[in-house]
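As the next step, I wrote out a protein sequence along with its fold in token form, included below for the reader:
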Amino acid sequence: MGHSFGGITAVLATVKEPRFRCAVALDAWMFPLDNALYPEVSKPVLFINTEKFQTPESVAKMKRLSSRNSQTKIITILGSVHQSQTDFTFLTGKFVNRIFSTRGSLDPYKCLDINSRAALGCLQRHLSTAQ
């Protein structure tokens, strides 16, 4: 599991390390993923995106991966920004938020809850010891 550049790193980890059975990518920055590696990403990935960060090109790259694996999912949390998936959003006050837009319109605790539930659901589904 990783955020931003760490999100695509988590996806690549499933390619490089056979013990990883899935990945959760929080607002993954997709551009470092080389086109030649797409066929090698065969394990499920959950992409949890924020509303204000992703570009159409980045989402197209995610869709390219999801078209290769029916268990790969893409969700977008409306009212969230890139920092919504980190603890930084809780450290900034209203003044800093107004200047740097560190919070979206969605309550940061609600956003954290959505992120946590989605990630946990993915991990439970793909890491179950019954498999």
Residues 108-127 form the longest helix (20 residues).
